[in-house]
Write a sequence for this structure.
């Protein structure tokens, strides 16, 4: 049986055990897609806006079904070396038309040969890793659920 989902649940029961609906980042950014939970339950997503990792999308008497974004290969740029360089690095990676995730201690970018070449050319230390990649709030025009402050329109 396919369970239709139009939005995340507003008040899921945290006492129920979680069953993951695993999805990659690119599919998670879409509004229309199908998914299968770890226990084989199928879902059809027809959403007003994309879901986020951790959203509960359905629950029954025995479990709640939660979106879990897959980890993927990324390039990790530690900011302990030069935190002041973060803005410049963000601009340079964005200039490659690639997304970026900024965290307090590191920047994450997709593991792409162009990013590696750029960082090597700039002599910026980095390492490869596997992580859940959540691009910044303006990546691909992703502003739908963020308050931009007075005077800004969504």
């Amino acid at each position: 049986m396919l369970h239709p989902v139009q939005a995340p649940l507003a008040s899921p029961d945290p006492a129920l055990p979680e069953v993951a609906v695993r999805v990659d980042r690119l599919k998670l950014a879409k509004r229309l897609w199908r998914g299968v939970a770890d226990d084989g339950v199928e879902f059809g997503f027809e959403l007003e806006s994309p879901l986020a990792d951790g959203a509960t999308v359905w629950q029954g008497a025995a479990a709640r079904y939660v979106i879990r974004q897959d980890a993927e290969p990324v390039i990790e740029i530690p900011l302990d070396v030069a935190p002041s360089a973060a803005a410049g690095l963000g601009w340079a990676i964005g200039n490659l038309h690639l997304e970026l995730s900024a965290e307090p201690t590191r920047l994450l970018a997709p593991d792409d040969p162009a990013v590696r070449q750029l960082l090597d050319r700039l002599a910026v230390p980095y390492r490869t890793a596997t992580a859940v990649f959540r691009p910044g709030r303006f990546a691909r025009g992703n502003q739908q659920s963020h308050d931009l402050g007075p005077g800004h329109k969504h």
Notes: The chain has two domains: 2-69, 72-139.
